[in-house]
Amino acid sequence: MQSKLTVYFEEPFWVGIFERSDGKKYSVCKITFGAEPTDMQVEAFILRYYNTLPFTQAIQAPLKHTADNPKRRQRAAKKALETPFRGTKA
Asked: Is 85 exposed, middle or buried (0-12, 13-18, 19+ CB in 10 A)?
């Protein structure tokens, strides 16, 4: 099972999108955090509430095949980190 969390600012709150996939099934859950959560708060939230999150009903979806080449994965990770961060207006 793979899980992914994306935290972003959606006026006026911070929102987290949990995605999980198991084989060919995919489901998501949207959580509103309110104020900007710290890394420690996000980790505590995951440890405490992940098993009780209201995920959508799993759907059949083909997963993208990721390259097994380690250099390609490294370039993709670098590109993901270089994407502009959508932060607050302050």
From this structure: exposed
